[in-house]
Amino acid sequence: MSPLPLARRNKTSADNQPPLPTWGPAETVSLASRVRDSDPDEPWDLVVVGAGITGAGIARDAAMRGLRVLVLDANDIAFGTSSRSSRLIHGGVRYLEQGQIGLVYEALRERHRLKNIAPHLVTPAQFLFPAYRGDRLPLWKLRIGLSLYDALSLYQSRGHQTLGPKACREREPLLAAEGLSGAVSYEDGVTDDARLTLTTLQSARRYGAEVLTYAPVVRLARETVGERDLQVAYLRDETRVFAQQIIVAAGPWTSERLLGDVGKRLLSLSRGIHVVMRADDVPVRQPLVIQVPNERRILFVIPWGTRTYLGTTDTAYEGDPADSSVTADDRQQLYRLIGRLLPSVDLSDQRLVSSWSGVRPLVRSVRSQKKAASGGTVELSRKHRVVENAAGILAVVGGKLTTYRAMAQEAVDLVMRRLGRKRGRCETHRFALVAGEPLTAEELKNPVLADLVNRHGPEARELARQVERDSQLGERLVQDLPYRWVEVRRAITHEGCTCIRDILRRRLPLALTDHQQGARVARQVATELTQARGGSSADIEREIAEYRDALQRETGCDPPEM
Ligand SMILES: Cc1cc2nc3c(=O)[nH]c(=O)nc-3n(C[C@H](O)[C@H](O)[C@H](O)COP(=O)(O)OP(=O)(O)OC[C@H]3O[C@@H](n4cnc5c(N)ncnc54)[C@H](O)[C@@H]3O)c2cc1C
After folding, report:
1. Ligand 1 centroid vs 166 CA: distance in angstroms?
2. What is the pTM of this model?
3. pLDDT at 498
4. In this structure, are 346 and 290 located in the same domain?
């Protein structure tokens, strides 16, 4: 489907946005069979390998410009780094220290744009960044840095504030008093990374893009098929998927296997973990930024409803990114470094609710290789790069969740030129990911809508209507978390879920926020999914076993019986 004429479309009016196509088991089976029967006479304009935020952004941009797009992912949407980040939409205060002014400027511009196109997914928050005697960044340096941050954001958010020690502790009584010189308070955004990725892909689907998950690409090639010179993605069963252009957005999996020589030593991988605790146990009043002694690295403590999460580490990583796991050492490192400044808080495994581990795909350069060789990946640039191999296959690597839209724009501009398409101004910053009027304060008095709005935006209204018809759908899955059964139903019918791991880890982050990691509801969710797919009771047991395995692998802890 080609997009409607964008210039005439109202920015947020839901009436003018193409409807959200259903995306349940039937659609997945039908697409899988069309992909298996790919016809070289009708190649896709663009095949994107990877459904993380980078691939999602590319798919949305390309589909809005009228290209026929197929996204293939070896796993689920946002399976990789895009569901394992610090969940911040930010300029990156710490990159100022590294002199990466251009990166900060771009990220701040994108922060502003994302807030406009996805207000329900980018929640502004006041971050408190304290300085202590002997810190690498004393208060005066923080003040200068944040003045620059305000200027680079073109003063589009509330400017920073400097607080003396007393005012700082009034804001955050948990902070250690000894040696405190004060703090700066500044605005940045918090998001739900997996949901941002899904919503971007949903928007791409509205414009006709198709997305097939659990479809690993094993090899890419350029081939002459009949009269045509095409790029070809090979799936595991040797299915060939034909495209005018292939673009790899495989995050930390972008490697020699997919790109040949160009993929060799393209990336340095760096692992970062987060731990989740109850907000009652770590009752910080706002996000905190914490300096690490003798390192150019900062840590975050972020309130998350009835939970608080803490992160992150930055350790060179080798191996399959899917196997990255939280270790006891990682957790101890966070407890020690953050505990110094929150002396009254018990940061220990006794308080642990859950944890996650992700791998950063950092672009290598000769300079960065030297830095990596000298110990860590903290200093490696978060900039992205677009590369091309001898077969003309493109790849977008590096970057940040925050800058995905701009990365996609650059890549799709290039694709449009390659394909010789004239029509094609990028419009992704002009149209909401989910169109419709924001919910009013009156509507948000409804507890169901209040729970749903942060994930669904204006579409929460439609979910609330379903709850009016069937009140059981309005129940919460777990009492102190805002996830409702209507969202499980929605995940199965409209969000392309294939297994319960998709639902309980990414559509709803129950695996990260429930201390039982969804154990009490896993069987019921598996049953609903299996019924929708037409499976058997053996499928339910298999689903549960696979979910437990995935939890074990990522958290490094034994999950509860389910
Ligand atoms: C600990 C940590 C904290 C971070 N915090 C932030 C933050 O707060 N803010 C921010 O802006 N950025 C942050 N980032 C960076 C950001 O998360 C990443 O830059 C971004 O998510 C990368 O997305 P991606 O789509 O490129 O890769 P991914 O999300 O990893 O997606 C790649 C996809 O490709 C698929 N794939 C791989 N191989 C194949 C294949 N052969 N065939 C088909 N599919 C394949 C995978 O299954 C995966 O879904 C953080 C990163 C980490 C690790």
Report:
1. 40
2. 0.95
3. 94
4. yes
